[in-house]
Amino acid sequence: MLAPLTSQQSHHDGRASVYDQSWMEQLAHANYGLIQTSASTVEAGGIAFERQLGVHSDDHLPGLTKMAEAIREGGALSAVQLHHAGHRAKPEVGGIPAPASSNTLKGIRAITTEEVERIRDSFIAAAKRAQLAGFDGISVHGAFGWILSEFLSPNLNDRKDKYGGSLENRARFTIEVIEGIRLDCGPDFQIGWRLSIERYGLLLEELREITAHIFDRELIDYLDLALWDSAQVVREGSFQGKTMLSVFTELPRKGVRLGAAGKIMSAQRAGELLDEGCDFVLVARAAILQRDFPLQVKANPMYDSPQLPVLADYLRKGGLSERFIDTMRGWQTFVKAGSL
């Protein structure tokens, strides 16, 4: 599967650009099982990146529809990743920080209960919009300290309302978003959930508990476990010495599928993750380096990605837009310094 990749090549108002469309077309015929869009804003104020793709307005529908058509023509399933930056929203690009706690950002109060419910409904409305555009599903972005991840964190969420306090309350925002999407979009619309378990005060034991609950109720169709490194080992706590991945693959998952991302750069590593209990793997860097990574793996069980960093011209010749290349310059050790 293709992991969601923020490329910052959309129009400033969130409409998909010709560069977004070209990127989808390049990927569509590369034999991915599922292609996800970049993080797409569910509200204009939830923006975290300049030129971020949007799904918060009907003005976004024409571009999203073309992207969905390109993916479908290539034979893959498609999903829009739904995103709200929460306290990490960037005012310089129109973002309105929406922290769970009044202690997170100096001088900015926590959003009210009513504002949480409004953002919840914006996620649901954005999912319906993705469905109208022809996508097979959505992926709820619950990772990296963005708003849903933020509410799960006891460090970033000290609320006294129904969305704070106990784990059940801190997970309520995420659960209500997922349940609302299922209700509005129906049983055949795919729902994914992207989860990270590092930084931002997140607790592994808690996230395992809430994931077990979501698996047991089959609230989602798939879990996208976003790891910094898919081979990471837990360093402390009750799961010390186990791989982070195994903490989740050991859970009964009923009809839910589980995949992982995190430095999957070779055919061998992809195969190892399937052996370790994943139903699928998600590639990011490897897909940027080589659009048709799945075809390369299929043709060569010893395939390995080019070594990083690479020249900008290598990415350019592969079909990446200048906007996308500029974004990749911001990733540590991806584009060789000084290359034009």
From TrEMBL:
InterPro entries: Aldolase_TIM (IPR013785), NADH_flavin_oxidoreductase (IPR051799), OxRdtase_FMN_N (IPR001155)
SUPFAM superfamilies (alphabetical): FMN-linked oxidoreductases (SSF51395)
Presence of the UniProt keyword Flavoprotein in the record: yes
Keywords noted in UniProt: Flavoprotein, Oxidoreductase
Flavoprotein is among the record's keywords: yes
CDD domains: OYE_like_FMN_family
Domain NADH:flavin oxidoreductase/NADH oxidase N-terminal, residue spans: 2-299
GO molecular function, one term: oxidoreductase activity
Pfam families for the chain: Oxidored_FMN
Protein name as annotated: NADH:flavin oxidoreductase
